[in-house]
Prior knowledge:
- This protein is α/β, with parallel strands linked by helices.
- The protein has helices at 9-12, 19-23, 112-122, 162-177, 202-217, 219-223, 235-238, 250-259, 303-310, 322-341, 357-373, 384-391, 396-402, 415-418; strands spanning 65-67, 72-74, 96-104, 128-131, 181-184, 264-265, 278-279, 282-284, 289-291, 298-300, 348-353, 379-381.
- Strands 3, 4, 5, 11 and 12 form a 5-stranded parallel beta sheet that branches.
- Strand 7 and strand 8 (282-284) form a beta hairpin.
- Helix 5 packs across helix 8 and helix 9 packs across helix 11.
- It starts with 8 loop residues before the first helix and ends in a 5-residue tail after the last helix.
Amino acid sequence: xxxxxxxxxxxxxxxxxxxxxxxxxxxxxxxxxxxxxxxxxxxxxxxxxxxxxxxxxxxxxxxxxxxxxxxxxxxxxxxxxxxxxxxxxxxxxxxxxxxxxxxxxxxxxxxxxxxxxxxxxxxxxxxxxxxxxxxxxxxxxxxxxxxxxxxxxxxxxxxxxxxxxxxxxxxxxxxxxxxxxxxxxxxxxxxxxxxxxxxxxxxxxxxxxxxxxxxxxxxxxxxxxxxxxxxxxxxxxxxxxxxxxxxxxxxxxxxxxxxxxxxxxxxxxxxxxxxxxxxxxxxxxxxxxxxxxxxxxxxxxxxxxxxxxxxxxxxxxxxxxxxxxxxxxxxxxxxxxxxxxxxxxxxxxxxxxxxxxxxxxxxxxxxxxxxxxxxxxxxxxxxxxxxxxxxxxxxxxxxxxxxxxxxxxxxxxxxxxxxxxxx
Length: 423
């Protein structure tokens, strides 16, 4: 793979592996930082109703079949799902799929989770929220977490306050009711040393996944908050994919993911804007290299990778440059989108964190990019799960032909000719 950044590969992988320790910033490598209490974003609001249900429409014990200790409930079919996908017709132009995803998916008082739920609702978008299991585990019960190859209760992203756990529960409920996917970002986010996820075995991944599911499905037992409403879904059925910490460890995760019946994995680093393939029987949906304005190299389609190239891993550096960096990040996302939209129509994946890094400029960039994509002809803003639904009903020969198109390559003779069956 050709170089896509001037920083080291280790730092580029959405991780900043050495940066968290050097800067002393909890959560730098993946999820919402513990203890952030500054208000930001737009809050839940009302907005349009194109994409979801009212946040107050939470399931109660009478609204569905409670599961286990009542932390989750089977409330039936998920609301606000698209029509059942159908195969492309001969000669039909493929849709331009865009998947926005969020690592960690914890609300820590900065208003970012509700801000983007509202943005999605206003633009008829579905997203994927990769929930870190320990974000539903009170810190007082951290010894219940036994991470592979790390000490009991360890976590490189810390734990949320009780109030932030409750807020996270609230917005995870709303996200599912609004039609979004709840995936997993696993738990402790270990990126360095002997306990790194890069060194985990398939059995270690099974252990970690079992614990992540346990924290989501037994949060009432662990917290004692029996008066709160359950999450409105059966997580053992809902969970069909995830993204590993730091984009590390995919090779040993895939056998476990396949055995569990997962449909995709979004952990592979350094992907290209081409149509996806399966690895080990699981759809491989990686972050992608996109044009980086003002540079000859490309950057991965994730907020942290923009930061790593702009402020050299500093999360609060050079405020005088924020406006320029915000514009550059926005144009990078839109550049990647337009390159695919105007050529091979490869799906476009964008990864994010609910963080106010560098004054929140990456959150602004993601919002402006989404607004610049929404509403265009053939564009579908979907979750990873919904995209897999579409992939799985397509003619394998059509998908194979789509994979022959390189980055930025338009179909010879146009889509009608390119996807017409040969005699």
